[in-house]
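Example for tutorial group B:
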Protein backbone atom coordinates (compact mmCIF):
# COMPACT_ATOMS: atom_id res chain seq x y z
CA UNK A 1 0.00 0.00 0.00
CA UNK A 2 2.72 2.41 0.88
CA UNK A 3 5.86 2.11 -1.06
CA UNK A 4 8.68 4.67 -0.88
CA UNK A 5 11.95 5.25 0.94
CA UNK A 6 12.05 8.55 2.89
CA UNK A 7 14.13 11.31 4.27
CA UNK A 8 14.71 11.66 8.02
CA UNK A 9 11.77 12.12 10.36
CA UNK A 10 12.37 14.52 13.21
CA UNK A 11 10.52 15.12 16.44
CA UNK A 12 9.66 18.62 15.27
CA UNK A 13 7.56 17.21 12.46
CA UNK A 14 5.19 15.73 15.04
CA UNK A 15 4.65 18.69 17.35
CA UNK A 16 1.00 19.15 16.34
CA UNK A 17 0.04 15.70 15.13
CA UNK A 18 -2.46 14.97 17.90
CA UNK A 19 -2.87 11.81 19.96
CA UNK A 20 -4.68 8.57 19.35
CA UNK A 21 -6.58 5.96 21.32
CA UNK A 22 -7.91 4.04 18.26
CA UNK A 23 -11.20 3.14 19.96
CA UNK A 24 -13.11 4.47 16.98
CA UNK A 25 -11.22 2.21 14.58
CA UNK A 26 -12.71 -0.83 16.28
CA UNK A 27 -16.21 0.60 15.90
CA UNK A 28 -15.61 1.32 12.22
CA UNK A 29 -14.23 -2.12 11.45
CA UNK A 30 -17.02 -3.92 13.31
CA UNK A 31 -19.70 -1.86 11.57
CA UNK A 32 -18.58 -3.00 8.11
CA UNK A 33 -19.40 -6.68 8.47
CA UNK A 34 -23.09 -6.12 7.71
CA UNK A 35 -22.84 -2.79 5.89
CA UNK A 36 -24.45 -2.45 2.43
CA UNK A 37 -22.56 -1.24 -0.62
CA UNK A 38 -22.27 2.53 -0.75
CA UNK A 39 -21.41 5.36 -3.10
CA UNK A 40 -20.75 9.02 -2.39
CA UNK A 41 -20.63 12.23 -4.36
CA UNK A 42 -21.30 10.56 -7.71
CA UNK A 43 -18.50 7.99 -7.39
CA UNK A 44 -19.42 4.35 -7.81
CA UNK A 45 -17.22 2.84 -5.12
CA UNK A 46 -17.68 -0.77 -6.21
CA UNK A 47 -16.76 -0.09 -9.84
CA UNK A 48 -13.95 2.32 -9.09
CA UNK A 49 -12.44 0.12 -6.40
CA UNK A 50 -12.57 -2.92 -8.69
CA UNK A 51 -10.80 -1.00 -11.45
CA UNK A 52 -8.07 0.26 -9.14
CA UNK A 53 -7.55 -3.06 -7.36
CA UNK A 54 -6.77 -4.50 -10.80
CA UNK A 55 -3.93 -1.97 -11.01
CA UNK A 56 -2.50 -2.76 -7.56
CA UNK A 57 0.45 -4.71 -8.95
CA UNK A 58 1.51 -1.69 -10.98
CA UNK A 59 0.81 0.79 -8.18
CA UNK A 60 2.95 -1.28 -5.83
CA UNK A 61 5.91 -1.12 -8.19
CA UNK A 62 8.94 0.48 -6.63
CA UNK A 63 12.02 0.96 -8.81
CA UNK A 64 15.24 0.65 -6.83
CA UNK A 65 15.80 3.53 -4.43
CA UNK A 66 18.50 4.07 -1.84
CA UNK A 67 17.25 3.03 1.64
CA UNK A 68 17.24 5.72 4.35
CA UNK A 69 20.23 5.92 6.69
CA UNK A 70 19.20 4.51 10.11
CA UNK A 71 21.30 7.13 11.92
CA UNK A 72 19.05 9.88 10.55
CA UNK A 73 15.92 8.58 12.29
CA UNK A 74 14.72 10.58 15.28
CA UNK A 75 11.97 9.11 17.41
CA UNK A 76 9.50 11.88 18.30
CA UNK A 77 7.87 12.43 21.66
CA UNK A 78 4.19 11.58 21.97
CA UNK A 79 2.02 8.49 22.11
CA UNK A 80 2.96 5.04 20.85
CA UNK A 81 0.88 5.57 17.74
CA UNK A 82 2.50 8.90 16.89
CA UNK A 83 5.90 7.26 17.23
CA UNK A 84 4.80 4.28 15.13
CA UNK A 85 3.57 6.69 12.46
CA UNK A 86 7.04 8.26 12.41
CA UNK A 87 8.69 4.86 11.96
CA UNK A 88 6.33 3.91 9.12
CA UNK A 89 6.94 7.27 7.45
CA UNK A 90 10.70 6.71 7.74
CA UNK A 91 10.34 3.46 5.81
CA UNK A 92 7.82 4.80 3.30
CA UNK A 93 7.62 8.54 2.68
CA UNK A 94 10.09 10.66 0.71
CA UNK A 95 11.13 14.13 1.85
CA UNK A 96 7.69 15.55 1.14
CA UNK A 97 6.14 13.80 4.15
CA UNK A 98 2.41 14.65 4.13
CA UNK A 99 2.85 16.18 0.67
CA UNK A 100 4.83 13.22 -0.69
CA UNK A 101 4.19 11.84 -4.17
CA UNK A 102 5.63 8.55 -5.45
CA UNK A 103 9.03 9.37 -6.95
CA UNK A 104 8.04 7.53 -10.13
CA UNK A 105 5.13 9.88 -10.85
CA UNK A 106 6.32 12.14 -13.66
CA UNK A 107 3.13 14.19 -13.77
CA UNK A 108 2.51 15.72 -10.36
CA UNK A 109 -0.81 17.16 -9.23
CA UNK A 110 -1.17 20.91 -9.43
CA UNK A 111 -1.45 21.31 -5.65
CA UNK A 112 0.26 19.88 -2.61
CA UNK A 113 -1.47 16.61 -1.62
CA UNK A 114 -2.35 17.89 1.86
CA UNK A 115 -4.23 20.77 0.22
CA UNK A 116 -6.16 18.58 -2.23
CA UNK A 117 -9.59 17.08 -1.77
CA UNK A 118 -10.05 13.37 -2.32
CA UNK A 119 -11.99 14.16 -5.50
CA UNK A 120 -9.04 16.19 -6.81
CA UNK A 121 -6.68 13.30 -6.07
CA UNK A 122 -8.97 10.87 -7.92
CA UNK A 123 -9.15 13.25 -10.89
CA UNK A 124 -5.33 13.40 -10.96
CA UNK A 125 -5.15 9.60 -10.89
CA UNK A 126 -7.60 9.35 -13.79
CA UNK A 127 -5.71 11.99 -15.80
CA UNK A 128 -2.34 10.28 -15.41
CA UNK A 129 -2.58 6.57 -16.26
CA UNK A 130 0.65 4.64 -16.62
CA UNK A 131 2.42 6.16 -13.62
CA UNK A 132 2.36 5.26 -9.90
CA UNK A 133 0.11 7.30 -7.61
CA UNK A 134 1.13 6.40 -4.03
CA UNK A 135 0.51 9.57 -2.06
CA UNK A 136 1.04 11.23 1.30
CA UNK A 137 3.00 10.44 4.43
CA UNK A 138 1.95 6.79 4.34
CA UNK A 139 2.17 6.39 0.54
CA UNK A 140 -1.40 5.15 0.08
CA UNK A 141 -2.18 3.65 -3.32
CA UNK A 142 -5.48 4.42 -5.15
CA UNK A 143 -7.51 1.31 -4.27
CA UNK A 144 -6.56 1.62 -0.61
CA UNK A 145 -7.33 5.34 -0.57
CA UNK A 146 -10.81 4.70 -1.92
CA UNK A 147 -11.40 1.86 0.53
CA UNK A 148 -10.30 3.97 3.49
CA UNK A 149 -12.52 6.85 2.38
CA UNK A 150 -15.46 4.47 2.30
CA UNK A 151 -14.69 2.98 5.70
CA UNK A 152 -14.21 6.39 7.31
CA UNK A 153 -17.37 7.77 5.73
CA UNK A 154 -15.52 10.72 4.19
CA UNK A 155 -17.09 12.80 1.40
CA UNK A 156 -15.24 13.39 -1.86
CA UNK A 157 -14.78 16.99 -0.77
CA UNK A 158 -12.76 16.00 2.32
CA UNK A 159 -9.24 17.41 2.25
CA UNK A 160 -6.33 14.97 2.28
CA UNK A 161 -4.91 16.88 5.23
CA UNK A 162 -2.44 15.77 7.86
CA UNK A 163 -5.32 14.75 10.13
CA UNK A 164 -7.09 12.82 7.36
CA UNK A 165 -3.90 10.97 6.52
CA UNK A 166 -3.32 10.13 10.19
CA UNK A 167 -6.87 8.85 10.55
CA UNK A 168 -6.38 6.60 7.53
CA UNK A 169 -3.11 5.28 8.92
CA UNK A 170 -4.75 4.69 12.31
CA UNK A 171 -7.32 2.46 10.65
CA UNK A 172 -4.59 0.53 8.82
CA UNK A 173 -2.60 -0.14 11.99
CA UNK A 174 -5.85 -1.23 13.61
CA UNK A 175 -6.26 -3.69 10.74
CA UNK A 176 -2.78 -4.97 11.60
CA UNK A 177 -3.97 -5.83 15.12
CA UNK A 178 -2.90 -2.83 17.18
CA UNK A 179 -5.63 -3.29 19.79
CA UNK A 180 -4.75 -6.95 20.32
CA UNK A 181 -1.06 -6.11 20.49
CA UNK A 182 -1.63 -3.27 22.96
CA UNK A 183 -3.73 -5.60 25.13
CA UNK A 184 -1.00 -8.24 25.17
CA UNK A 185 -2.94 -10.68 22.99
CA UNK A 186 -0.56 -10.50 20.03
CA UNK A 187 3.22 -10.78 20.01
CA UNK A 188 5.29 -7.85 18.87
CA UNK A 189 6.83 -9.98 16.11
CA UNK A 190 3.37 -10.88 14.77
CA UNK A 191 2.24 -7.26 14.87
CA UNK A 192 5.41 -6.21 13.07
CA UNK A 193 4.79 -8.80 10.35
CA UNK A 194 1.19 -7.63 9.99
CA UNK A 195 2.37 -4.04 9.51
CA UNK A 196 4.93 -5.28 6.97
CA UNK A 197 2.12 -6.82 4.94
CA UNK A 198 0.54 -3.37 4.68
CA UNK A 199 3.68 -1.27 4.14
CA UNK A 200 6.22 -2.87 1.81
CA UNK A 201 9.12 -0.83 3.20
CA UNK A 202 8.86 -2.68 6.52
CA UNK A 203 10.53 -6.12 6.66
CA UNK A 204 9.03 -9.43 7.73
CA UNK A 205 10.83 -11.62 10.26
CA UNK A 206 12.77 -13.02 7.28
CA UNK A 207 14.28 -9.56 6.79
CA UNK A 208 12.60 -9.17 3.42
CA UNK A 209 9.59 -7.17 2.33
CA UNK A 210 6.33 -9.10 2.05
CA UNK A 211 6.50 -7.98 -1.59
CA UNK A 212 10.23 -8.68 -2.06
CA UNK A 213 11.12 -8.96 -5.73
CA UNK A 214 7.54 -8.16 -6.70
CA UNK A 215 7.57 -5.28 -9.16
CA UNK A 216 10.93 -4.20 -7.76
CA UNK A 217 9.87 -4.01 -4.11
CA UNK A 218 12.21 -4.44 -1.17
CA UNK A 219 12.29 -3.50 2.50
CA UNK A 220 13.90 -0.11 3.09
CA UNK A 221 14.98 -0.79 6.69
CA UNK A 222 16.46 -3.90 8.31
CA UNK A 223 14.54 -6.16 10.65
CA UNK A 224 17.10 -5.41 13.38
CA UNK A 225 16.48 -1.66 13.07
CA UNK A 226 12.72 -2.23 12.90
CA UNK A 227 12.82 -4.38 16.06
CA UNK A 228 15.02 -1.90 17.88
CA UNK A 229 12.64 0.98 17.19
CA UNK A 230 9.56 -1.06 18.13
CA UNK A 231 11.29 -1.90 21.42
CA UNK A 232 11.95 1.80 21.98
CA UNK A 233 8.34 2.67 21.18
CA UNK A 234 6.53 -0.07 23.06
CA UNK A 235 9.08 -1.55 25.46
CA UNK A 236 7.61 -4.58 27.19
CA UNK A 237 4.55 -2.84 28.60
CA UNK A 238 1.15 -1.81 27.34
CA UNK A 239 0.86 0.83 24.63
CA UNK A 240 0.52 4.39 25.89
CA UNK A 241 -2.77 6.05 25.03
CA UNK A 242 -3.75 9.69 25.20
CA UNK A 243 -3.52 11.38 28.59
CA UNK A 244 -6.35 13.47 29.99
CA UNK A 245 -4.65 16.64 28.74
CA UNK A 246 -4.42 15.18 25.23
CA UNK A 247 -8.02 13.94 25.11
CA UNK A 248 -9.52 17.09 23.50
CA UNK A 249 -7.08 16.79 20.59
CA UNK A 250 -7.90 13.09 20.29
CA UNK A 251 -11.63 13.76 20.12
CA UNK A 252 -11.10 16.48 17.50
CA UNK A 253 -8.99 14.16 15.36
CA UNK A 254 -11.59 11.40 15.35
CA UNK A 255 -14.64 13.66 15.04
CA UNK A 256 -16.99 12.68 12.24
CA UNK A 257 -16.01 9.02 11.98
CA UNK A 258 -19.00 6.90 11.03
CA UNK A 259 -19.44 3.32 10.00
CA UNK A 260 -21.02 2.44 6.68
CA UNK A 261 -24.77 1.99 6.84
CA UNK A 262 -25.15 4.30 9.84
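The residue assignment follows.
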Amino acid sequence: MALLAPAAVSAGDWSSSGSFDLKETTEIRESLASAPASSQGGWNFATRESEWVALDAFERSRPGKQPPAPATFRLPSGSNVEQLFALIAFAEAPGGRYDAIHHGAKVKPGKKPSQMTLAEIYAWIDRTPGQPHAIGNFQIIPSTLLNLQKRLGLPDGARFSRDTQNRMAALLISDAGYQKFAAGRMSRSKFMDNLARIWAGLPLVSGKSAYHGYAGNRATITRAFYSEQMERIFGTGKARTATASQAPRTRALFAGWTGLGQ
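The mean pLDDT is 75. Compare this with the pattern of hydrophobic and polar residues in the output above.
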